[in-house]
Amino acid sequence: MKALDTNVVVRFLVRDDEAQARRVKALFQRAEDASERYFLTTASVLELIWVLTAVYDFARAEVIEALELLSQMSILEFEDFDVVSQLVRLGRDTNVDLPDLVIGLTGRAGGCETTLTFEKGLEQTALFVRI
Q: What is the DSSP track for 63-129?
């Protein structure tokens, strides 16, 4: 298995460079035809959120839709699929920043009962305790 850098996923979603987007589409099609999978790290998911919002001005709902699309692709294997699926759900159900949700969900996936924070408003998810 091979991992994907964030820029490959961005090309697939945004298609801002048509030549690279075609290469990614062909890569993904070959993987599907051969029943191969690509690995996507949680760090790449976090970077993807940042790139889509800061560079491409995606709205929160568009980022969540993109993450949901990726999570449904049979050729992608996530470092922690549960983190991504819960991120999509909590992203829709709360107004907590998506990167904060990744931090809290990753902590919980790592066996932590909570994530301590100084930031107000995060405790609405029960992933965080404000100190």
A: HHHHHHHHHT-TTEEETTHHHHHHHHHHHHH--S-HHHHHHHHHHHHTT-S-EEES-TTGGGGSSEE
pLDDT tens string 86-98: 999 999 999 999 9
Distance CA 87, CA 63 (A): 11
**The amino acid at 126:** A
Separation between Cα atoms, residue 76 and residue 81, nearest integer Å: 10
Angstrom distance (rounded) from CA 20 to CA 127: 38
Written as six digits, the tokens of 64 are 């969540």
Sign of CA dihedral 106, 111, 117, 122: positive
| CA–CA dist 30, 26 (Å, integer) | 6
Q: Computed from CA positions of residues 3, 6, 7, 8, in that sequence, does the dihedral angle turn out positive or negative?
A: positive
- 36-88, pLDDT tens digit by residue? 999 999 999 999 999 999 999 999 999 999 999 999 999 999 999 999 999 99
Paired with 117 in beta bridges are 130
Q: Whole-structure pTM over 0.85, yes or no? A: yes
